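Here is the promised in-class demo. Please do not try to memorize the tokens; focus on the logic of going from shape to residues.
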């Protein structure tokens, strides 16, 4: 199992610091979800004109990197934007070495059924996978927003049987929002899980930093989510992909600084790696 972090956790770091710190703290890679004010790295010069230099800098630090996109594959109104971003992302993701591209589901189930949205998602991903170079990458649908339920995710998976399309299992989302035990999630979608996101939380509705649902994020292992159970489960099933620490500092500025949170995550995950 390889370990990385998403740049949601490093909103104030530039590219050089992200790479330097990732290597210093002992990570294997970085999942790029924005740098500075820009959430889409594929529009930054470092990943366009300077892509070869940037990829070399990442490799020389002993790292690999992936891309978390804003694609919403189940939203028919975004087909043009989805395809344009997918095309921009392919060359970047291939150069960065991790070979993983995150996509969202999206859509609004108050307007259409999940089944109809899943049809759109299947058609979108089929089109994406036909793009030149797309089959060299692993495209993963995150258990997020309208698609937290493993049963709902399976609706999309069943329409895209290509092995280059799978699931990014955000363990916190399925357990905290979806109220699914890790074993239940794995039973339904485990064979297609290609990537993991990890973050912990406690239910503390009186706390000043609580989110609208009463939960607030805390360091992995300090909360109430079954992260350790899930990690042991996937390792027992032979999972050898990435586990990514999603420290949402970009969205929750009250969270600890990355200089504290990232080494803390490595301290927590290290016993699972031995």
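The designed amino acids, position by position:
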């Amino acid at each position: 199992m390889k370990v990385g972090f998403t740049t949601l956790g490093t909103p104030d770091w530039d590219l050089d610091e992200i790479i330097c710190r990732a290597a210093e703290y002992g990570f294997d890679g970085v999942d790029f979800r924005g740098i500075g004010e820009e959430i889409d790295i594929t529009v930054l010069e470092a990943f366009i004109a300077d892509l070869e230099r940037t990829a070399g800098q990442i490799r020389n630090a002993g790292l690999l990197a992936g891309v978390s996109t804003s694609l919403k594959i189940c939203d028919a109104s975004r087909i043009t934007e989805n395809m344009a971003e997918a095309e921009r992302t392919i060359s970047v993701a291939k150069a960065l070495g991790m070979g993983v591209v995150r996509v969202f589901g999206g859509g609004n189930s108050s307007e259409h059924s999940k089944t109809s949205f899943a049809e759109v998602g299947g058609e979108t991903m089929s089109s994406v996978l036909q793009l030149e170079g797309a089959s060299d990458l692993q495209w993963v649908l995150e258990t997020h927003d309208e698609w937290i339920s493993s049963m709902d995710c399976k609706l999309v998976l069943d329409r895209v049987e290509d092995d280059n399309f799978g699931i990014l299992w955000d363990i916190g989302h399925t357990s905290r929002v979806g109220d699914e035990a890790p074993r239940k999630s794995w039973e339904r979608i485990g064979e297609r899980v290609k990537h993991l996101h990890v973050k912990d939380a406690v239910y503390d509705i009186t706390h000043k930093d609580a989110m609208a649902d009463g939960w607030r994020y805390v360091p992995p292992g300090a909360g109430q989510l079954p992260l350790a159970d899930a990690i042991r489960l996937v390792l027992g099933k032979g999972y050898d992909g990435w586990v990514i620490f999603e420290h949402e500092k970009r969205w929750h500025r009250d969270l600890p600084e990355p200089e504290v949170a990232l080494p803390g995550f490595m301290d927590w995950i290290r016993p699972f790696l031995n």
